[in-house]
């Protein structure tokens, strides 16, 4: 956590972050949020403002996960339904094979449960600290 927060605060020194910033995927726990907020305050950087939580039905999430394909060298993501590669199961730019990520139901359910638990604690933390939170059905 400390390494991620340190790297993030270094990025916030860049000119493009002077007027604000958007974080996606971090923090994921209340402890990370607390440490991040304390670090930003201590360094005199802009602190967290509005917080947006994206939510979706588990069935839709599972469908999105099951169709996912990855070009490992670049990190490019494809999806068989929502963003298919131009030809077969190969990367559009290199022609290299894509890897399908495996998602079994039990593993997926476990990750969803952990995420919802952490998100609930994170929402409570933000509300206690007076931050404006918004939930969006994604």
UniProtKB/TrEMBL annotation:
One GO MF term attached to the UniProt entry: AMP kinase activity
Domain of life of the organism encoding this protein: Eukaryota
Protein name: Adenylate kinase active site lid domain-containing protein
Location of the Adenylate kinase active site lid domain: 68-100
Gene3D superfamilies named in the record: P-loop containing nucleotide triphosphate hydrolases
InterPro entries: Adenylate_kinase_lid-dom, ADK_active_lid_dom_sf, P-loop_NTPase
Family indicated by similarity: Belongs to the adenylate kinase family.
Organism whose genome encodes this protein: Spumella elongata
């Amino acid at each position: 956590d400390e390494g991620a927060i340190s790297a993030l605060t270094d990025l916030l020194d860049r000119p493009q972050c002077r007027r604000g910033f958007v974080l996606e995927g971090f923090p994921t726990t209340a402890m990370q949020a607390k440490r991040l907020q304390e670090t930003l305050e201590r360094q005199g950087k802009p602190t967290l403002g509005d917080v947006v939580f994206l939510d979706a039905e588990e069935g839709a999430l599972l469908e999105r996960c099951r169709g996912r394909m990855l070009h490992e060298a670049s990190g490019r993501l494809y999806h068989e339904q929502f963003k298919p590669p131009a030809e077969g199961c190969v990367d559009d730019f290199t022609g290299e094979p894509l890897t399908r990520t495996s998602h079994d139901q039990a593993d997926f359910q476990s990750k969803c449960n952990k995420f919802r638990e952490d998100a609930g604690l994170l929402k409570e933390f933000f509300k206690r600290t007076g931050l404006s939170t918004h939930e969006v059905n994604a």
